[in-house]
Design goal:
Among the domains are: 62-98; 122-282, Glutaredoxin (3-Layer(aba) Sandwich), CATH 3.40.30.10. Helix content is 39%, strand content 17%. It is built from eleven helices and ten strands. It has helices at 3-13, 15-31, 70-85, 89-98, 134-138, 151-157, 170-177, 198-206, 208-214, 233-238, 268-282, and strands spanning 116-117, 122-125, 131-133, 142-148, 162-163, 168-169, 187-195, 223-227, 247-252, 257-263. α2 (15-31) runs parallel beside α3 (70-85). The longest helix is centred in the N-terminal third of the chain and has 17 residues, at 15-31. This is Mitochondrial ATPase complex subunit ATP10. InterPro entries: ATP10.
Length: 284
Amino acid sequence: MNNSFVLGKRFFFSSSNRSGIFRRLNNNIINSAPKDIQIEELRKPIGLPQPPFNTKEYKYGNSFLDLFNSEKTEKRAGELEVEFRKSGFHDLYVLKKTNGKIFYSPPSYWKADKSLYFPHLSGQRLADGEECNIEDSLAGKVSIVRMFTTDVGKNLIDSYFVDKTHGLDYLKNDLDLLKDVEGAKSAQIIEINMAENWLKMAIVNFAKNKYASIVPEHRHDKTFICNRTQLPFQIREEIQINNLYSGYVFVIDENLKIRWAASGEASQKDFNLLWRCVNAIRKE
């Protein structure tokens, strides 16, 4: 029998090491108790250091061998603390307290050379049900990405796209408002419905005709139904989308980098800021 495997078994099943692992986990569970909600402004770019590619599968948690690495075990215990703290009823509590505002948007867009990448996602295209890689639709274009899991989240972020006071509706009139004009590239709206799990995805697919009737037909080929579970908790944390009930908006450049982000309901100031950032990036 492999000596390293035998040593691993002895390490894991010895009472001192086993109790140490569970003691650390217990401490992190205690620390995960709800605390006062503090909404922070995004200062540093969010995203991943590597660009997405269509064979990527993100890792969940630790491997078996990682259990014998104290540094990785401590890191994972800390991740679990955050995960416990940001799940279930806590998401609803935050939604009610903040109206879905999980973070405050940065005051301007991030520079391209400092920005990080949007993750790989695959999903069914609303137009024809075909399985697609989302990055294929993002590449080479300036995109405003709408992302949500619930109707509540969708309704919240609609406020970034519709300004009734000034008669602006980017959801219906995007082809005209975001078309290529002198000095500014065209832009597109991408909609990502993040079904919570396979069961919820099946329900969304069952109601696809109703969903299609809500989304303008010209945007069906830019609307996708994705399984949220393909992004592990830590990846969702990197792009600040872990609250299940809120909605999110991202401005993505041609190189798949996140240049600006928003969450929850938009004020008039938020609405103006989004489209000011979009128009500036279109002129780069």
